[in-house]
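Thread: "does anyone have the structure for this chain?"

Original post by V.I.:
We have the sequence but no experimental structure in hand. Need at least a predicted one for the grant figures.
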Amino acid sequence: MPELPEVEALRDFLDDHLVGKEIARVLPLAISVLKTYDPPVTALEGATVTSVARHGKFLDIAAGDLHLLVHLARAGWLQWRDDFPATPPRPGKGPLALRTVLTGGDGFDLTERGTTKRLAVHLVHDPAEVPGVARLGPDPLADSFDRETFARLLGGVSRQIKGALRDQSLIAGIGNAYSDEILHVAKMSPFKLTTGLGEDDITHLYTALRTTLQDAVERSRGVAAGKLKAEKKSGMRVHGRAGQPCPVCGDTVLEVSFSDSSLQYCPTCQTGGKPLADRRLSRLLK
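Reply from O.Q.:
Generated one for you, tokens below.
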């Protein structure tokens, strides 16, 4: 799933390629992609893009007095095109979900692979009209997101730190991958409870959060949209690397599986050498 660094890189890319250009047409091609119907997407035709912003994992393309909000979910992606085929695409065929064409002939496609359709597009007058945006917590890369803000947020919840970092209503933009990376940098177990964090723990975790996300944004800056996924994968220390050596200590990266996701961690760096219980795997072995 694209998370804050990749969405920020897409925002930067689209800011260069969209702002100041006129939208010729927007073509929804998957019935599930549009989450709003008033105003219709045809209201964007003839409007000029004025800005591209990011709210957590949402892209916000402003044109006229409207905002096209895009959440790529787990399997969605944005593909820039310098031109399009002369034959219009057929709805429901392949991964193509929505096409936006500019008057200059270029534009972008939104695609989503797999059977679970979660890619979401909203057309609204105010981004706050989108429930997922309205409930977002603060952006962890904002100048105002200091160590005291982070401590106050964690002090208001009692849960495992992995889940707290992924909670979009608590902190916007961090998902499964970067929560693994942040916790590895902080040398902290994903199962550690927020109520068990001391002052030094909070400081180390805050520093790990900021540096991990800032480094990922810098790595992604200037990378073409089509290469961002590969860039994200190449920069991971533990996420998606189960069975491989930890780049810090050389121990084997382990995994805990859940019904629809998994986490990866280094036992030496994060859990005192002890493997975490993987209840799903244990049930399968019985």
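V.I.: this helps a lot. The mean pLDDT is 93.
O.Q.: and The first strand starts at residue 23 and ends at 28.
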